[in-house]
Amino acid sequence: MNEFDQFVKHKLNVKHYFRYTDDFIILHQNENYLKVLLPEVAEFLRERLKLNLHPNKVILKKLRQGVDFLGYVVLPYHRVLRTKTKRRILKKVNAKNLQSYLGILKHCNAFEIKQKILNKMSKAEELEKLKKEMEADKSLPLLGTANLVFGEGRPDAEIIFIGEAPGFHEDKLSRPFVGQAGKLLDKLLAGIKWPRESVYITNIVKRRPPENRDPLPEEIEAYKPYLKKQIQIIDPKIIATLGRFSMNYFLPSAKISLGHGKGVIIKSKIIYPLYHPAAALRSTQVLKELENDFKKLPALLDANRGGPELLKSIENVKAEETIPKAPAQSSLF
């Protein structure tokens, strides 16, 4: 394409021309000039390089509307990242590719996303440090009988899902919710267009109790400080509890049959009780209720993003159904 570059710059005398592989843009203040230029460009590509302009990819638009090019939106006096590019960067950035992505951000107005990236990386480091602290803590119950299942997902997730304890498959893979219940959780997340990697998933007790028994009170108490730190680091807007043990950790007097799908505001966070996916696998009715409760999550998250006033308005509109007053409980995060 070097021959094409020379043709555009020197033969056509185009001053504002940008190309990457076989994509290019030409900027000019005169629309008619660009219309006259187009047949010449097409002829050169066809006759000299045996290439054709794709009719669906030839776009003539005003610069003030922004030109979508290489992941940027080029505007008259500045460039910004495309929304999809922002999402992709926030999803994929890690310690290995951090500098590459920061380099991309240097070429556009990206202060806000840069701060989000640095915040995410800082949280990831803090979570890794906390995990190592747990691995070194010899006082934790179930040590030596099961693997540590710390948790996974976005370090800066706006929602965290918390179960009671790992099961057989989780113990084997050292990952939360990867068995049949985990597959259902993935399906429920996909149903509201939330990729699994966009949220954070963990348990109260981080090791599997023998024979998948219920976690004991002393086990919950022992792992409690680490869960509290996890929540403080991630700082989610919604804490979605999976099952009665997780719900009662935050809401000791609540009953899952009455409290599921009803958010409770505590310290500007929403505690949102849900049935455990394993329970939904055993009951068609519970599955239906769990699916309905999941459908409320996006609106609930948008409300919390909007701040106290929007949450207050939702509370008034939906009365006691979605955001009832929080019952008394001890400090948990």
UniProtKB/TrEMBL annotation:
SMART domains linked: UDG (SM00986), UreE_C (SM00987)
Keywords for the protein's UniProt record, in alphabetical order: 4Fe-4S, DNA damage, DNA repair, Hydrolase, Iron, Iron-sulfur, Metal-binding
Record-linked PROSITE patterns: RT_POL
Enzyme class of the recorded protein, top EC level: hydrolase
Keyword rRNA processing annotated: no
Record-linked InterPro entries: DNA/RNA_pol_sf, RT_dom, UDG_Type-4/5, Ura-DNA_glyco_family4, Uracil-DNA_glycosylase-like, Uracil-DNA_glycosylase-like_sf
Residues annotated as domain Reverse transcriptase: 1-74
Reactions that this protein is recorded to catalyse: Hydrolyzes single-stranded DNA or mismatched double-stranded DNA and polynucleotides, releasing free uracil
Entry EC no(s): 3.2.2.27
The keyword Iron-sulfur belongs to this UniProt entry's keyword annotation: yes
Gene Ontology BP term (one): DNA repair
Record GO terms (molecular function): 4 iron, 4 sulfur cluster binding; metal ion binding; uracil DNA N-glycosylase activity
Record-stated family: Belongs to the uracil-DNA glycosylase (UDG) superfamily. Type 4 (UDGa) family.
NCBIfam families (alphabetical): UDG_fam4
PANTHER family named in the record: TYPE-4 URACIL-DNA GLYCOSYLASE, TYPE-5 URACIL-DNA GLYCOSYLASE
The protein's name in its UniProt record: Type-4 uracil-DNA glycosylase
